[in-house]
Write a structure and sequence with these properties.
The complex is a heterodimer of chains A (115) and B (109). Chain A is mostly beta strands and 115 residues long. Chain A has strands at residues 4-7, 10-13, 19-25, 31-38, 42-49, 56-57, 64-67, 73-78, 87-94, 105-106, 110-114. Chain A is built from no helices and eleven strands. Chain A is globular. The relative contact order of chain A is 0.33. In chain B, a hairpin with a 6-residue loop joins β4 and β5 (44-49). The chains are: A mainly beta (115), B mainly beta (109).
């Protein structure tokens, strides 16, 4: 059971380039999330999805787009990368909303550097 | 929107000393969760507290949920080098889980 898998794990981008981070979960979870983690800022929610075909904005959505065409996949896109998007990105999933007490399972992270 | 504040931001302790991190929410929480992230790793769920005044223990870790359900704490007794990492609290807000900024724990052996 792989859990939550993110690709790629490391990437260096030039300013203005685009890229997509892929998240896949094999636990049949309804909810999926993309967080970014920066020193001293904790985990900030970028976008999330409450089910296949749905997406919603989180705390810091600007500069990112997402898609959830299949239940098991949640894609995070950067259309025109900026140095401010240098961060560690975590995908996560849960069977239901966090408020019902279900654990959120995190992927191993994707380290993105924009130069 | 709801805010979850966590203190201290950073603590460096001698092995064997105790450690406590505190979490405060701007609103009443239905539950609070705690996660641990090892250096270079990803956050891993530790525990959830639901009831007012609830106390739960996991070996040397003691978790408390305040009577007003607006604050929580994690206490580690006699820290070990395996305890190093960042500890996050998180509380629900609508469909989302809001994380505190985390407390980084370093242990000197």
């Amino acid at each position: 059971n792989a859990g939550v898998t993110q690709t790629p794990k490391f990437r260096v981008l030039k300013t203005g380039q685009s890229m997509t981070l892929l998240c896949a979960q094999d636990m049949n979870h309804e909810y999926m999330y993309w967080y970014r983690q920066d020193p001293g800022m904790g985990l900030r929610l970028i976008h999330y999805s409450v089910g296949e075909g749905t997406t919603a904005k989180g705390e810091v959505p600007d500069g990112y787009n997402v898609s959830r065409l299949k239940k098991q996949n949640f894609l995070l896109g950067l259309e025109s990368a900026a140095p401010s998007q240098t961060s560690v990105y975590f995908c996560a999933s849960s069977p239901d909303r966090g408020i019902t007490g279900n654990t959120i399972y995190f992927g191993e992270g994707s380290w993105l550097t924009v130069v | 929107g709801q805010q979850v504040m966590q203190i201290p931001q950073y603590q460096h302790v001698q092995e064997g000393e105790d450690f406590t991190t505190y979490c405060n929410s701007s609103t009443t929480l239905s539950n609070i969760q705690w996660y641990k992230q090892r250096p270079g790793g990803h956050p891993v769920f530790l525990i959830q507290l639901v009831k007012s005044g609830e106390v739960k223990k996991q070996k040397r870790l003691t978790f408390q949920f305040g009577e007003a359900k607006k604050n929580s704490s994690l206490h580690i007794t006699a820290t070990q080098t395996t305890d190093v990492g960042t500890y996050f609290c998180a509380g629900p807000s609508g469909n989302k889980l809001v994380f505190g900024a985390g407390t980084i724990l370093r242990v000197k052996s």
